[in-house]
Amino acid sequence: MTSNPAATIGIDFGTTNTVVAVTGPDGEVSVLRLAAPGGDLTAFRSTLSFQLHPGVGGQPPERVVAAGPWAIDAYVEDPLDTRFIQSFKTFAASAAFTETVIDNRRYRFEDLLSAFLLGLRHHAGPGMQAMPPRVIVGRPVTFAGGAPDAALALERYETAFARLGFSDIRYAYEPVGAAFFFARKLTSAAVVLVADFGGGTSDFSIVRFEPTPQGLRSTPLARSGVGVAGDAFDYRIIDQVVSPELGKGGDYRTFDKVLPIPQRYYAAFARWDQLALLRASRDMRDIRALARSALEPDKINRLVEVLDDNHGYALYQAVSRLKLDLSRDETADFSFVAGSVRIERPVARSEFEAWIAPELAAIEGAVDQAIDQAGLRPEQIDRIFLTGGTSFVPAVRNIFHRRFDPAKIETGGEFESIASGLALIGREADLDLWSERRAPERSPSAAATPGMPRG
Questions:
Q1: CATH fold of 8-176+434-447, please?
Q2: The pTM is what?
Q3: CB-side exposure of 23: number of CA atoms within 13 Å?
Q4: Cα radius of gyration (the chain)
Q5: H or E segment and range at residue 22
Q6: Helices vs strands, H then E, count in the chain
Q7: Exposure of 219 by Cβ count < 10 A (0-12 exposed, 13-18 middle, 19+ buried)?
Q8: Among 60, 75, 161, 445, which residue's Cβ finds the most Cβ atoms within 10 Å?
Q9: What confidence tier does 416 reach under pLDDT thresholds 50, 70, 90?
Q10: What does the DSSP 8-state code read for residue 241?
């Protein structure tokens, strides 16, 4: 492997967090640190807020866009007049998502991503102001969604990253980036399986690394992925614990008939991004009407409050706390308290594991697919590296403990491994072996750049 002396940048745009890493001419990689309200951070939350500020001196109201922790602060400060969007990466590959309307302005996916990246650059300071022309952007093996269109997702990425001024935009699989990060400490040849668990996808890559006098030689052997991960686990918790308290499974009366409350209102909780969109949809009018005809109106009133008062982030925090607690303990208390809404109950780890059984089976199938594709038996894989927040879930770890010697399994770099590895890939002599270009045709309207987010 011959190194490229030019500085490179790697960006891990994640469903939950985004991380940026840079390599210098000496080949050392460093993760960009940002001075945030709560202290320095390397993991920049993949969130956006659109907050309405009153006009000054007779001027019309101004919609201020913020990203990352500043978006969260804007939402917490004024949830009623703030449109808060998170996990928007999950509809990158969705042809069904064309745009969302915020204060009569249309935002396509590439507009949302551009606004987010501009906010990230704004708060990164000098670290992202003089960037090299080349960027290696992480992409999942399988994008999230029911029928993901990877070409569409990369076309949208291309538009957004070009707006930042990058002229050489390449895409590398996220678990391959993590593999490069892990391989830095190898002292002997090894076949490495990397499992990367994000918010929207679970991705797997098998790479053979071999130290040589010229450097570390690497050979890709297999990759696989599935569009389920942490957010899907979140939805199972909400579906079992929260949605029944918001009217799911209940009935309403229309004339002389009793009918079930439509399930589609609760499907929005499957993706955090859709929760914000439901509030602005035509379904919201029907939900309000249900509060007058439901057999249990208090539950529908709770649903209306959760949507109207933008309690989605508080719900996200409650679910995240429960997952973390269940990773440590056999039983934990779920507590979602926001406004007048209070939903609390104990949850056993065994319950949670039963709820996520379909996702665990899909993840397990993708792991076996990668092993089969590599033409290897599990015992022929020398090292297993688990990364990403969902790797802490005991049932997920058990998938690997059942297949491999536990002594071979390592974890770490939950936030930094992919971005660091992507930056290292950018120094490879044969970039086409590890990354790909996408240069789609873009309409003139796609070149319009949203205003610089402020926060």
A1: Nucleotidyltransferase; domain 5 (3.30.420)
A2: 0.79
A3: 25
A4: 23
A5: strand 17-23
A6: 15, 23
A7: exposed
A8: 75
A9: confident
A10: I
176, with CB counted inside 10 A (0-12, 13-18, 19+), is buried
Ramachandran class of 32: left when φ > 0, alpha when ψ lies in -120 to 50, beta otherwise: beta
CB 197 within 8 A of CB 389: yes
How many alpha carbons fall within 13 Å on the CB side of residue 37? 10
Neighbouring C-beta atoms of residue 335, cutoff 10 Å: 12
Please tell me the distance from the alpha carbon of residue 311 to that of residue 339, in angstroms, as a whole number: 8
Residue 358, CA atoms < 13 Å, CB-side half-sphere:
7
* pLDDT over 70 (residue 414): yes
User: How many angstroms separate the CA atoms of 135 and 137, rounded?
Assistant: 6
Are 405 and 382 in contact, with CB atoms under 8 Å apart?
no
25 close to 7: Cβ distance less than 8 angstroms: yes
Q: Count Cβ atoms within 10 A of the Cβ of residue 203 and give its class: 0-12 exposed, 13-18 middle, 19 or more buried.
A: buried
User: Quick check: 156 and 113 in contact, CB under 8 A?
Assistant: yes
DSSP 8-state code for residue 256: T
- Residues 247 and 260: their CA atoms lie apart, in Å, by 10
Q: Could you tell me if 391 and 398 are in contact, meaning their C-beta atoms sit under 8 angstroms apart?
A: no
pLDDT at 130: 65
H/E stretch holding 281 reads none
Distance CA 15, CA 229 (A): 10
The percent of residues in the chain predicted with pLDDT above 70, rounded, is: 91
Spatial neighbors of 62 by CB under 8 A, at least 6 apart, are 52, 53, 55
pLDDT of 261-298, one tens digit each?
999 889 888 766 567 667 767 888 899 999 899 999 99
Assess contact for 167 and 201: CB atoms under 8 A.
no
- With bands split at pLDDT 50, 70 and 90, how would you rate the model's confidence at 445? very low
415 against 135, higher pLDDT: 135
**Which amino acid belongs to residue 41?**
L
- The domain limits of the chain are 8-176+434-447
Residue 343's DSSP bridge partners are 336
Is the separation of the CB atoms in 352 and 345 below 8 Å? no
Strand partners, 127: none
